[in-house]
Each structure stands twice: as C-alpha cells, then as structure tokens.
Request: fold
Amino acid sequence: MTDLDLAGKRVLVREDLNCPIKNGQVANDARLRAALPTLQELLAKQACIIVVSHLGRPKEGVFDEAFSLKPVAERLGVLLGVEVPLVRDWQHGIQVDQGHLVLLENIRFNPGEQSDDENLGRTLAGLCDVFVMDAFATAHRAQASTHAVARFAPMACAGPLLVREVEALERIVLAPQRPVAAVTGGAKLSSKLGLIERLLEQVDLLIPGGGIANTFLGALGHPLGQSLTEPAFYDQARALHARYGDRMLLPEDVVVTPVGDSAVTVRLIDEVHDDERIMDIGFHSQTRFAASLKGMRTIVWNGPMGAFEDEAFATGTKAMAQAIVSSGAFSVVGGGETIEAVERFGLAEQFSYLSTAGGAFLEFLEGRTLPGVAVLEERAAS
Ligand code: ADP
Ligand code: MG
Reply:
C-alpha cells in the first residue's frame, strides 16, 4: 500500500476493529489505535477510503444493534479527528470523497462472509480500485472480506500493519538468529500441540509452563494432585519428550494451593499432595529458566507460566517476562492472556514485537498457510 499512488483511488481496507463494547461504548480501543497509522496514511494520500471490519459473532444475515460498529465509528472519528460515517447499505455502491473515510457496518451481518462467498467477495471488490488487507489477526480464516474480495478486486495489496506483523513473525520462523528459545505456557497442550511440535523441531530450547508443563509432568509420572492437566494427551506428550527432551526444560519446583483453601506452598514436583493444585512454577525453576534464556538471540513467548490473574500466582510469569526482555534477544510475544500479563507488569513496550493476532499468530508460527496472506502473494505473483 505504501508504494502505491492512491490519490483519488477508491480504496477498500480490511482492518480488525473488533473491540470489546460495553454499554454502547468501546471499552478498549487498542485495535483502533493499531489501525490509525494505516488510515492516516490513506487520508494523507488523498484516497477515497472505505473501511471494512467485523465485530463479535452476530448471526449471519440479521442486523443486530448489539453487534453494530456504531460505537467503533464514533471512537475512530475521535481518534482520527474526522467524521466517520457508518454505512449500512453499500451493496449497490457508495460515494466517498477524496481524502474522506467511511466505515461499512459489521461485515458479519452479510450472508456469505464466513463461508468466503464468491458473490459477496465480488460485491465488495466492486466498491474499490484497490483492496488493502491490513487485518493480520483475521488472515487465518478465508472469509469474503479477507480472501474472496482479494481475488476479485482490480488490485490487492498488503497494508503496513499486516506487513509489520508478518515481518516480525518471519524473523522467528525463517532463518532466526540462534540460539532460539520458545516459552510456551498457558492452559492446554491440546490447543497448542501443533505449535509445540513445530517449535520443538526448530528451536534450541523450549520451556513449557502452566497447564502445558503439567501435562508433560503428568505424562512423565509426576503426581499432579488436582492440577489442570490433560491425561488424554499423555501419550503424545511422552513421545515428544522422548524425542526432544534434551532441548526441553521442565519445572523442578511448583507453587501449590490446596483445593478450597488459599494457603500457598512451594513443593518439589514429586511432592505435590493429592488435594493440591499446581498454580505457578517455583522459585528454583524461575531462576534456572531465566539463566537459560540469557544467551538466547531469538525468543518467542506464548502462554503464561501460571494462573497469573491472581497476584499470588503471577511470580513465575513475571520472572519469565523480565528474563526475556533483559536477555537482549529479538523477542516476540503473543496470545490473549500473555499480552494481558505483560501489560499488567508494565513490560509491554520492552518486547521487540507484541502480536495481538491470537489464532493467526499461532497458525503462522505453526507454519500453516494463512489464506488472507497467501491470496495477496498469489495476486502479486500473477
Ligand atoms: P494465551 O491466551 O496467552 O495463549 P492460554 O489461553 O493458553 O494463553 O492460557 C492462559 C490461561 O492459562 C490463563 O488464564 C491462566 O490463568 C491459565 N493457567 C496457566 N497456568 C495455570 C495453572 N497452573 N493452573 C490453572 N490455570 C493456569
Ligand atoms: Mg487464551
């Protein structure tokens, strides 16, 4: 997008403006602020700008006030300092003046959005001279506004926000500076198995945390009491550990609490009681993990080390966050709760790159093709 002369051109730009809405107001405008530079650049280029986004998960084909982008249009207008009209009927074309911007109503109200319908893609494409895909967080789903439209628009290109994200993630996936470490915590191994398998093939060191570490510990026969774990994945965890155990570091001590009690105790991993739950990694593990991250030149982090939402169990996650930023490595962090944690610790600014892309972040690191990116590459090649 940055390379194109867009003066007077009709530009349809896909952003991810999917913000939490409370009482008819945007409760967190982080995603709007992330999209601002792209929109400002388009305004400065004197394009005729049409912005398209989804919000939440409304029933397709039905307008529902609760999922309207109205609060987003208002907030975006304040942030940009311009009027942002919200357009509900655009299927038969819309008029936008040069250097002005309009926002289409929630694209998920339209039948065919989620099924990547060709007709909806063509209708969207008909609105513009150039389609700009800038919503990396939606690029892992082939939908009409992320994929079909890019096939049929007269021209399709990547927006600057998407480019930044892809470049940061490529620095991890393609020829990263070694040694490379991955810290993979969070709730469930099942939801990140593909990612962890792929990372284990490629990294020099992998440190599991949270429920994922529990599942490895359980698979290796350590007592877990009432901890969060997934016994259905013990076979796979054991197989991964047998193959890649030499590049994995598992906790040797853990913070536990008895069920229905608030007492907090640190135990060696073989001494967890039947009525206890592992809530965080212990102090020795934190120190050992932090030391092992010191010489790393690339670190990718997804998933908290413990139930950090409770201050009593946030220490392990905080220690890892601090170890990663002070390692001096190129560091990328992603994941809903992980980002929430680093923001709470006030460390967000110190990572090289913070990805808010959720599912797309995980799928990209897994090495999967993202349809919303692939279609741009196809268009660029043809
Ligand atoms: P992300 O959204 O960053 O990818 P996940 O969704 O996989 O991370 O997991 C985050 C959740 O895992 C957090 O809400 C945290 O409380 C929980 N969690 C981490 N460790 C534990 C643990 N030992 N016991 C229970 N919950 C845990
Ligand atoms: Mg999560």
In short: The chain has a mean pLDDT of 96.
